[in-house]
Amino acid sequence: PLRLSEYVQIHPTMFYNEERIGFLISEAVRGEGGRLLNSDGEEFMSRYSPAWKDLAPRDEVARAIYNEMTRTGSSHVYLDIASYAGDSLNIHERFPGIYEECKKSKIDIEKEPIPVVPGEHYFCGGVLIDNFGNTSLPGLHAVGEAACSGLHGANRLASVSLLEGLVYGTRAGIASSKTDKKEEYFPDILNWIYPNNISTTNNDPLLILQDWNNLNTTMWNYVGIIRTETRLTRAESDLRNIYSRITDYYRNTNLTKDKIELRNGVLAANLIAQAARRNTQSTGCHYIKE
Ligand SMILES: Cc1cc2nc3c(=O)[nH]c(=O)nc-3n(C[C@H](O)[C@H](O)[C@H](O)COP(=O)(O)OP(=O)(O)OC[C@H]3O[C@@H](n4cnc5c(N)ncnc54)[C@H](O)[C@@H]3O)c2cc1C
């Protein structure tokens, strides 16, 4: 079984750029004094977390950014280390990777704020495992982000996934090497049989692109950082429709990697949305608004 699928951790600050896939702007930048500014150039974290301000926990910061973006109708906010770094901090030396990556997008972090946006970071739930990576299916082990060991609770702490991968990976490896009934667990997989009237030409890439766009916006807007009953109800209904259309497409056309990935994506999205609908608590990762 799957557990805790609704707990999708969002990192508050991914680099924002319309043309490139975002990379992560480490929380250490805020640790060194960096401040978040909205599109009007105003510092806003003290309004959301008077005690911790920019050093509030991940989910609180992500929620505050999301609120500011919604309020100002902006696609991103800014993280400013240039104006707030102490005299002793050499930004370039302290954050060489971030400096170089931002430079590729013509942002000089020693002189100007970094455009940032919250982004999907870690799936806390997954296939339920025991302490040795065993799933409920005999002989099948799961480890890492695909698994739910319970180690992360409702909100993973930084770098714990590395620990989880190493510890559970080793344990599952040892456990699976002791299994002596491999043939019994994994019989030969039968060949895929296409129906007679299969379409081998209906491979329009726009169909797949459009479905991914639908999936992305539905998940981000309705099953994202802030969830409401209305949003989740809509998500479930929309995702059910997308799922049924994609399953039909998947069954009646020839298989390609893109189609398999899309089908897996929509299946995962459905499971996450259903789990989100059942959970009325805000204990970490996401926040339920009445
Ligand atoms: C931007 C970002 C920054 C992060 N920073 C940190 C950090 O600082 N510290 C930390 O602890 N964690 C961090 N994480 C989380 C961490 O990177 C992941 O949780 C971790 O990499 C998961 O490892 P994994 O081996 O379980 O899965 P993956 O790294 O996703 O590995 C799964 C592998 O399976 C392969 N695969 C998929 N499908 C198939 C298939 N059908 N057949 C064969 N192979 C397949 C994939 O290609 C991939 O290589 C970060 C995550 C992100 C997104």
Description:
This protein is an alpha/beta fold and 290 residues long. The protein has three domains: 121 residues, Flavocytochrome C3, Chain A, domain 1 (Alpha-Beta Complex), CATH 3.90.700.10; 62 residues, no CATH class; 84 residues, Fumarate reductase/succinate dehydrogenase flavoprotein-like, C-terminal domain (Methane Monooxygenase Hydroxylase, Chain G, domain 1, Up-down Bundle), CATH 1.20.58.100. The chain is 42% helix and 12% strand. The protein is built from ten helices and nine strands. It has a four-stranded antiparallel β-sheet, with helices on one face. The longest helix is centred in the C-terminal third of the chain and has 24 residues. It is globular and about 65 Å long. The two termini are 29 Å apart. The model has no long low-confidence stretch (mean pLDDT 91). Flavin-adenine dinucleotide (FAD) binds next to strand 5 and helix 6. Flavin-adenine dinucleotide binds next to strand 5 and helix 6.
* Secondary structure tally, helices: 10
CATH topology of the largest domain: Flavocytochrome C3, Chain A, domain 1
Global mean pLDDT: 91
Please give the CATH class of the largest domain: Alpha Beta
Give the strand order of the largest sheet, numbering strands 1, 2, ... along the chain.
2-5-4-3
Write the layout of secondary structure elements.
Elements: E1 2-3, E2 8-15, H1 28-31, E3 35-37, H2 45-48, H3 58-72, E4 77-80, H4 91-94, H5 96-104, E5 114-123, E6 126-128, E7 147-148, H6 160-177, H7 182-185, H8 205-222, E8 226-227, H9 229-252, H10 257-278, E9 287-288
Parallel strand pairs: 6-7, 8-9
Antiparallel strand pairs: 1-6, 2-5, 3-4, 4-5
Helix pairs in contact: 8-9, 8-10, 9-10
The protein binds flavin-adenine dinucleotide.
Flavin-adenine dinucleotide (FAD) is lined by residues 24, 121-122, 144-146, 159, 161-162, 165.
Protein name: L-aspartate oxidase
Family: Belongs to the FAD-dependent oxidoreductase 2 family. NadB subfamily.
Domain Fumarate reductase/succinate dehydrogenase flavoprotein-like C-terminal: 213-287
